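Extended Data, panel c. Modelled sequence:
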Amino acid sequence: MKNLNLDKISSPIIIKQKIFFDKRGFFQEIFLKKKFNLKVKFTALAKSKKNVIRGLHFQIKDKQTKFIYVVDGKILDVVVNLKKTSRNFGKVSKFILNEGDALFIPSHYAHGYECLSNKCSVLYHLEKYRNAKYESGIKFNDNGLKIKWMTKRPILSKRDKSHQSFEEFRKIQKTL
């Protein structure tokens, strides 16, 4: 993997890393600051079971650039462009990520994912600290976004069930 200046990237990108296999298993470098030019301040781990959907999350202030890494399992990762000045405002992008895959997500995107395997573990490297005061989200099943999730019976948190619609976000938020 060549060095990437993530400050210059405005769309989500999958980052493929080398994996070194041997009879013991494998070794993989997940995040190297010198390769990605990302000022990681916060790392978190989420473990989920099949059919769990987390998201679509974002922070109104202290927006978080995210580097997502799938430690275990398989996920459908979904991002929505929330930058009102972008010609791609409201565009949904979807990625299937397997164990060992990474995804870079700029700060102006809402982010969520669905666990497709029996269980999955997802590591988040974030450029800004989590700030509960500014946390927000868009409904995972928003009619306007037309996201096709794999599961018909999602497992959701109470908070994720109560998120605003994309249209409400569009009316309320000046910019993201």
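Helices lie at 33-36, 158-161, 166-172. This feature is highlighted in the accompanying rendering.
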